[in-house]
Amino acid sequence: MFKIRSFSRQHTCCLMDETFIQRKRTAAVLGSMVVPKYCDPKTVYTPKDIQTDMLSEHGLNLSYMQAWRAKEKALQFLRGNPCDSYNKLPKYFYILEKNYPCSVVKLKKAADDCFLYAFVALCTSINGWQHCRPVVVVDGTFLKSAYKGIMLTASTMDAAGTIFPLAYAVVDSENDASWKWFFEQFKEAYGERPSMCVVSDRHESILKATSVVYPGLAHYSCMWHIWTNIRSKFKKGHLQLHELYFATARSYTMDEFNERMLKIEEVDLCVKSYLYDIGYHRWSRVHATVNRTFTMTSNIAESLNAVTKDARELPIFDLFEYMRTLLERWTKEKLSKAKGTFTYLGHKYNKELEDNSTLSQKLRVRASTDHIHTVLDGVKRYIVCLENKKCSCGQFQLDELPCAHALAALRHRNETYENYCSPYYTRKSLLLTYEMPINPLPDEGKWDVPQHILDEVVKPPAGDKRQPGRPHKERYKTFDEIKSKKYKVLCGNCGGEGHNKRTCKNAPKKK
């Protein structure tokens, strides 16, 4: 036992200074120091990087768990609690409608105020849609934040052949109800246009939803997704079938299609039966009831998913704001490129036309009438009707762009190609697509929101909280996808393929 007889409040030892005055290396302190590293969701800054930087800059030797907790604190400071993010949606959607009139912004909750669906179609996309070909590519991709969910997107191609996002939504999962709700909001925003069609990855819920919301609308399948199904279902002749299938899907005439289908039948009769059961009109260009031109796959939707890969880790409020800023940036950049375009057509279609023009140089033309010409390509003969914008090769009418034979006929008449191209490919359409800018939103602290909007409660999805542990960032790939990848093993000793340094029997490579 000790008895204190006198006590001096003045402490001069350095140990007490370090204990009571200096900040400790707690997760909150370290997290506040690394917050700027996580402002951009694409930045990869791992706990290992935190360990390295803290040791080199501040002389702090952190364990991995200390660095991981610092990262979690930094993300919490920057993005807030994922649970609270859902409660911000009502005021955010109110500001969107206020700043972007004529936009379609919808939020749907369950009976217990839990989040169910959210949909956004900005006025800029709605205005630009009128100047794009009415081919809508839809797809869904999973979220990687604290709560589960699926982000649905709809997009099309502009006159330059680049992605033009139309709408995006967050739903609970890809099911009949969620896709039906998505297409109902899409129809409210964009309506229905003549010759409109939808391209998707053959998800059953998409097929059902479009048949209900858009009865009679043409629905096509991505030819790449059909090929992956063929590759997984049928085990023989993959090398032969790969080239044959894609050539068949891209055929411009019925004769070409039938000839290639016979070759597919020779390789595997079951593959032909499978393609027939799907319906030729769903994947074949020449059988399509509505002209889909160059959109034979859902690649633009997959590309949009790749762009948002890192953003899908954000809380839902930050995800919607990321999508808005992405559209704001793309609109500005594409408008600048459109103003810097001095050709009659957009970049992609102008390149196609130049390639056709090169091929047309060696063709011979014989005029039958003012509008009908015979074009000789070696021993082959093609009939071009400029009045109806058709060629016996099929490319002129299906691509809605002069083929090599049509360009040869036009050169024979000393006529330019401008009147024979689709208006959806022109520079004028490109400028009109992006004529309406997306203005920035004010800071969140300056939002003027009515009290009844602030009082609205949105709870996180019930039962959709992710389980503890390292989250899965990539989708689960099928065995066939993994098996199809060809990995090259290179030797570090001789540089040869098929073996490694330990099993190498060759002489070392010269340096």
From TrEMBL:
Protein's name in the database: Protein FAR1-RELATED SEQUENCE 5-like
Organism: Nicotiana tabacum
Gene that produces this protein: LOC107807948
